[in-house]
């Protein structure tokens, strides 16, 4: 007569899943994305008032973020995002770290051409060698 033998193995204990195990990779990815955008993104200081640039058909992309002066439709000025009085413009020009570097001018499209021309002449008199008038592409 045949004998019956038990060849069964003891049960393997199952590992219980912990909710933290699933969250850690997500946190890692979020921090990597945060670091990526902090390193690759350029933070631009916006002027304290709305400036709508004029449009142009042909525009060249700029490589860096040089110093800029914004002028609103009503003639208000902002130096690197900080509102300034027109009388303080000469002082800001004298404090430039690199006077030979170009100065970007972000003029509102509704600004009178006469006011812009006077501002450009004042910038030239203040020692700005190169002025870049920023516009938007159509």
UniProtKB/TrEMBL annotation:
GO terms for cellular component: plasma membrane. It holds the Pfam family ExbD. The keyword Transport applies. Keywords: Cell membrane, Membrane, Protein transport, Transmembrane, Transmembrane helix, Transport. It is a single-pass membrane protein; Single-pass type II membrane protein. InterPro entries: ExbD. Its main location: membrane. GO terms for molecular function: transmembrane transporter activity. The keyword Zinc-finger does not apply. The chain crosses the membrane at residues 23-44. GO terms for biological process: protein transport. It is found in: Cell membrane. PANTHER family: EXBD MEMBRANE COMPONENT OF PMF-DRIVEN MACROMOLECULE IMPORT SYSTEM, TOL-PAL SYSTEM PROTEIN TOLR. Belongs to the ExbD/TolR family. This is Outer membrane transport energization protein ExbD. It comes from Marinimicrobium koreense.
């Amino acid at each position: 007569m045949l004998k019956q033998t038990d060849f069964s193995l003891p049960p393997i204990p199952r590992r219980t899943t912990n909710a933290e195990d699933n969250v850690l990779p997500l946190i890692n990815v979020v921090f990597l994305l945060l670091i990526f955008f902090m390193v690759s993104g350029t933070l631009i200081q916006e002027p304290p008032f709305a400036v709508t640039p004029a449009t142009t058909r042909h525009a060249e992309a700029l490589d860096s973020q040089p110093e800029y002066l914004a002028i609103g439709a009503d003639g208000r000025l902002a130096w690197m995002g900080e509102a300034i009085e027109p009388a303080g413009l000469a002082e800001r020009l004298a404090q430039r770290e690199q006077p030979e570097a170009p100065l970007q001018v972000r003029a509102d499209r509704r600004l009178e051409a006469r006011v812009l021309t006077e501002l450009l002449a004042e910038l030239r008199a203040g020692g700005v060698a190169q002025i870049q008038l920023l516009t938007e592409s159509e």
